[in-house]
């Protein structure tokens, strides 16, 4: 059967051709939408030649071909009209990268990864080296403190033994001196008695009285002098107490304390629960091995040790700090 094409039909659009074919078959838009499994709005857009932006051109051409087949419109006629109305666009094809360019990119990425890993390794090495330097310095400080403490204790024990020996020697010398004096007095009395027996007998009672009287006088003056020498100065006591350094220990701790004259007031180890009170020339210089193990009070105020506890290192400070 030959299909005749009229001039007025040649100017019809795709949507108009499909609508006329649907109306000849007495089909509604809803019926077409149901048979093609499309939305009613899609069928209306096809008949009104509205191109939806959310529908790809490939899918839209497929819908139109299915619609034409349903209403018995020749596919050739509908496609020729559709190509005039919506020419097919050639798809963009991305140029294929050559193998050499991909290899270069991969090589560049490999170098970047190597450089990144190298930087990370250097940073880790520097961090480890810094930590080791601090650890070594801290161990050296502890070793030197321990050596100084041992030397100080040995010197203190030597001084105590020398003091005990000198005290014993002085006691022995005083005993020998008393014996010599008693022997000399006995010899003198014997010689004087042989020379003047009568005078000795007459003067015996007054001499004894003078000796007896002199003894109480001596005993009375001795306590007074002792009391006078032992009475402290009130002003000196208040000064010492104001500069007194009090330390209470919560754990075993090594420390060294010197005054402004360079005198070592204490150097050694204190156990948990012990306390230490010191006085000397200001300012005091303190070196404490475990700052968290000791509470310090100076001039009635508590010394803040938090800055040393946070870094967990040996504390070296001066009291008062403004000197």
TrEMBL record:
<dbReference type="InterPro" id="IPR025194">
    <property type="entry name" value="RodZ-like_C"/>
</dbReference>
<dbReference type="InterPro" id="IPR001387">
    <property type="entry name" value="Cro/C1-type_HTH"/>
</dbReference>
<feature type="compositionally biased region" description="Low complexity">
    <location>
        <begin position="191"/>
        <end position="206"/>
    </location>
</feature>
<keyword id="KW-1133">Transmembrane helix</keyword>
<keyword id="KW-0812">Transmembrane</keyword>
<dbReference type="GO" id="GO:0003677">
    <property type="term" value="F:DNA binding"/>
</dbReference>
<dbReference type="InterPro" id="IPR010982">
    <property type="entry name" value="Lambda_DNA-bd_dom_sf"/>
</dbReference>
<dbReference type="InterPro" id="IPR050400">
    <property type="entry name" value="Bact_Cytoskel_RodZ"/>
</dbReference>
<dbReference type="Pfam" id="PF13413">
    <property type="entry name" value="HTH_25"/>
</dbReference>
<dbReference type="Pfam" id="PF13464">
    <property type="entry name" value="RodZ_C"/>
</dbReference>
<keyword id="KW-0472">Membrane</keyword>
<feature type="compositionally biased region" description="Polar residues">
    <location>
        <begin position="153"/>
        <end position="171"/>
    </location>
</feature>
<feature type="compositionally biased region" description="Polar residues">
    <location>
        <begin position="207"/>
        <end position="234"/>
    </location>
</feature>
<feature type="region of interest" description="Disordered">
    <location>
        <begin position="153"/>
        <end position="234"/>
    </location>
</feature>
<feature type="domain" description="HTH cro/C1-type">
    <location>
        <begin position="18"/>
        <end position="47"/>
    </location>
</feature>
<protein>
    <submittedName>
        <fullName>Putative HTH-type transcriptional regulator yfgA</fullName>
    </submittedName>
</protein>
<feature type="transmembrane region" description="Helical">
    <location>
        <begin position="111"/>
        <end position="132"/>
    </location>
</feature>
